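Q: Convert this sequence to structure tokens.
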Amino acid sequence: MKPTQAVIDGAYRQFGRPTGLLGRAAGMLMAHRSSNRKRNAWAVSLLTVRPDDRVLEVGCGPGLAIHELSRIAHAGYVCGLDHSEVMLRQARSRNADGVRRGIVELQLGSVDELPAFAAPFDKILAVNTVLSWAQPAARLAQLRHLLRTGGLIAVAHQPRGPGATDESSAAAGREIAAALERAGFSRVRLETLGLSPAVTCAIGANARAPLVQRVSRRSRA
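A:
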């Protein structure tokens, strides 16, 4: 029997906010799909993370990028936020060693309700989340205030589902880059990874001082 549009829409929603058994399956698919792994590793590489960096990922999902970030920032601090308990459980399992060593912290939260942090971050990452945010430029401006002066943000997007093309990916990249500029980021540039469809990533720098005072690189929230 051909699935109804409602069933199809429900399945796609699981990738935005996974819940229950379907959410667990969506998380496993996200974690094991080759293109997802390549996309996350590539986005991380664009941030030129240092061993002692403090890094925040908004919408960490099953923790693929968190694992890569903590491998590089092995003397720093990596925080992942996600609004899905299902995803956080998978991320904690995947990053159990980093959590145990105090390098990784995973929290329930979202860009709409950012927790307080004791010190600014050196790098911020968001992969396939920003276009689902209400008022992306305003949310990106809030994230900019969590970055140290000169800190970088990378916002990657790969369109999925019917109609996803390299052209729609490029259009999304331009939209994200424009939102970064409206949010006050400088030196905004676009990078492209040749998957099918292509992945675009907008990178911007924070040229202004952050609102939170820097205490130390490894200060906790």
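The first helix runs from residue 5 to 16.
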